[in-house]
Amino acid sequence: MKKNLLFMTASLLALGIASQASAADLRAAPAYSKAPPMVAAIYDWSGLYIGINGGGGSAHSSDDWSNSARSTGGTVGGQLGYRWQVSNWVFGVEAQGNWADFGKKDGWHHVDNFSLYTGQIGYAWNNVLWYVKGGASLVNNSWYWGDRAASYYGASGQYVGETVGTGLEIGFAPNWSVGIEYNHIFMDKQDLSWGLTTVKNTVRADMDVGLVRLNYRFGGPVVARY
Fold first, then answer.
1. What pLDDT is stored for residue 37 in this prediction?
2. Which residues is 171 bridged to in the sheet?
3. What is the DSSP string of 192-217?
4. Considering only the top CATH level, what class is 40-225?
5. Would the pTM of this model clear 0.85, i.e. be above it?
């Protein structure tokens, strides 16, 4: 009888210890949780934008009389445009106007201002955009034989041409971007009449301009994609 009681007591003790161990294991087992999905932040270049720019450049001109000049100086202006993004491709149109001071006021050739009307196509790596552009240009040139006070005044006015360029732009905030841009501007040949004479002279010119640009875009911020 005593042996049976001892056996039953030992069995109950063993069963209690095993139950407590199993409960401890259950409490220690970590709860399963599903990992949150990865979210990629995609910068969206679509929308209307406005900005300012500044930089410098040079204009080279020559004529039928073997005159030539290289006029250098600074420029500042602004731009207004619209872009829309399809996957990584970005398309856009832009109008830009700049005041310029290329060349001396009493020099043979002076650039007073210019404007560009271009289309763009670019490729975006999230908030980094590289693009090329091309279109029409209007340049206010002045040519002088002597200086502005001389009697042999050349010609001044808006001259039509073409432009090609490229730029790199970085979005540093949801609606702000900063970039650098290069433009080459071709000016059409101009037939000038010097002073009050009937003597004709054909002038050819082109320009190279480098700019730093700051843009503000109206529209949605970064787009989250899963």
1. 58
2. 177
3. EE-TTS--EEEEEEEEEEEEEEEEEE
4. mainly beta
5. no
Alpha carbons 13 and 66: distance in angstroms, whole number: 115
CA distance linking residue 133 with residue 151, whole number of Å:
41
Q: Strand, coil or helix: what is 160?
A: strand
Q: Residues with Cβ < 8 Å from 191, sequence gap 6 or more?
A: 200, 201, 202
Question: Tell me: the pLDDT tens digits for 76-119?
Answer: 999 999 999 999 999 999 999 999 999 875 567 889 999 999 99
Phi-psi domain of 195 (left: phi exceeds 0; alpha: psi -120 through 50; beta: other): left
DSSP 3-70: HHHHHHHHHHHHHHHHHHHHHHHHHHSPPP-PPPPP-EEE----EEEEEEEEEEEEEEEEETTS-EEE
How many other CB atoms are found less than 10 A from the CB of residue 136? 12
CA atoms of 71 and 66, how far apart (whole Å):
16
Mean predicted confidence (pLDDT) in 168-189: 95
State what percent of residues in the chain have pLDDT above 90.
52
- φ, ψ at 4 (rounded to 5°): -65, -45
